[in-house]
Write a structure and sequence with these properties.
The chain is of the alpha/beta class and about 350 residues long. The chain has helices spanning about 40-45, 100-105, 145-150, 155-165, 180-190, 205-215, 225-235, 250-260, 280-285, 300-310, 325-335; strands at about 1-10, 10-15, 25-35, 50, 55, 60, 65-70, 90, 95, 115, 130-135, 140, 175, 195-200, 215-220, 240-245, 260-265, 290, 320-325, 345. It folds into 2 domains: about 1-150 and about 320-345, Medium-chain alcohol dehydrogenases, catalytic domain (Quinone Oxidoreductase, Chain A, domain 1); about 155-290, Rossmann fold (3-Layer(aba) Sandwich), CATH 3.40.50.
Length: about 350
């Protein structure tokens, strides 16, 4: 089968690998349909690492995906606890927590210390034609959700978890720093949760325009301009909740500056430097709550329900489509934010 494998910073190659063998007990063999390119994939592509995890040998990237069940092992129960059948279209949770540690038993599988995750070294990902996965990671999807939207249920689930952490007050004010795919999902969720107004800032004008179309109030300009514009809009008050959904550099400080005393800042982005940088006094003197979003937990059933009901836009945010053999070009384009990219997907 074909797979897109990373050999070093910006060195992504299409290679032929053996097709996975038949699934073992509690596993399924999937034909991958679509894989999305995530910001965390771009970190790994650019630096051959993410955080303190380095790519030490060729790695198949990709973790936002859905596919078709080709075969099942014995006792293959899906994420809803039901038997999986060949021919079922599924969204796939790329995270494989152990299910037995202290944190898993507390209902916090996203912080499992023995977690395996597709496309995160040393675990291979979904930029390939077939993949074996635990059946419990697979969630059947209705025909109302197209294949591209199925793949995007994973980053949407991250946004859903972040929105849960934010505890958005009904009628309150929200700011989002970063209008990438997750930021645009957060915008939609904040409005669904009853926020009175949602401000959003992004340096790329085409992303800001999409945010405006989705109902956001765009804060134009860089850090200083965005802060000044928001204070002008709110009479100097600021917002109840701020999300940082960019690359967690100066964007963290922007989110902190935008938030009212006693407010909450949810950090979703991942910094390339693996360092958190902000003005300490700005957060301390306001008594802010800083909440870190680690992937998601138990989000797929709700994500599927919202997408199937048409309550959120996912597939319509896809701006670029590539075939698997074009993955190196797709990553190069996306990493440089060329051609007005918002969300790129790869048809596997």
């Amino acid at each position: 089968m074909l797979a897109a494998r990373l050999h070093g910073p910006r060195v992504l190659r299409i290679e032929t690998l053996p097709q996975p063998g038949p699934p073992s007990a509690s596993e399924v063999l999937l034909r991958v349909a679509v894989t999305g390119i995530c910001g965390s994939d771009l970190h790994t592509y650019l630096d051959a690492r993410i955080g303190d995890t380095s790519v030490e040998s060729p790695l198949t990237l990709g973790h936002e995906f859905g596919g078709l069940v080709e075969s099942v092992g014995s006792d293959a129960l899906d994420g809803f606890g039901q038997p999986l059948r060949p021919g079922t279209r599924v969204a796939v949770d790329p995270a494989r927590p152990c299910g037995r540690c202290e944190w898993c038993e507390k209902g916090l599988p996203n912080v499992c210390r023995r977690l395996h995750f597709c496309g995160n070294y040393p675990d291979g990902g979904s930029l390939c034609q077939w993949i074996r996965m635990p059946a419990r990671c697979c969630f059947p999807v209705p025909p109302e959700i197209d294949d591209e939207s199925v793949a995007l249920l994973e980053p949407f689930g991250v946004a859903l978890h972040a929105a849960d952490l934010a505890r958005i007050p009904i009628g309150g004010t929200v700011a989002i720093v970063g209008a990438g795919f997750v930021g645009l999902c957060l915008l939609q969720l904040a409005l669904l949760a009853g926020a009175g107004v949602v401000f959003i800032n992004d340096p790329l004008p085409w992303r800001a325009e999409v945010a405006r179309q989705l109902g956001g109030r765009v804060l134009a300009g860089d850090h200083a301009a965005a802060v000044a514009n928001l204070f002008a809009e709110t009479g100097g008050r600021g917002v109840d909740v701020a999300f940082e959904a960019a690359w967690a550099d100066h964007s963290v400080e922007t989110a902190v500056e935008l938030t009212v005393p006693g407010g909450r800042v949810v950090l979703v982005g991942i910094p390339s430097s693996d360092r958190l940088e902000m003005k300490h006094s700005a957060a301390r003197r306001k008594g802010l709550e800083l909440v870190f979003c680690r992937r998601m937990r138990h989000a797929y059933p709700r994500a599927i329900g919202l997408a199937a009901a048409g309550r959120v836009q996912l597939g319509s945010l896809v701006s670029h489509r590539f075939d698997l053999v074009q993955a190196p070009e797709a990553f190069s384009m996306n990493a440089a934010y060329q051609d007005r990219v918002i969300k790129a997907v790869i048809r596997c």
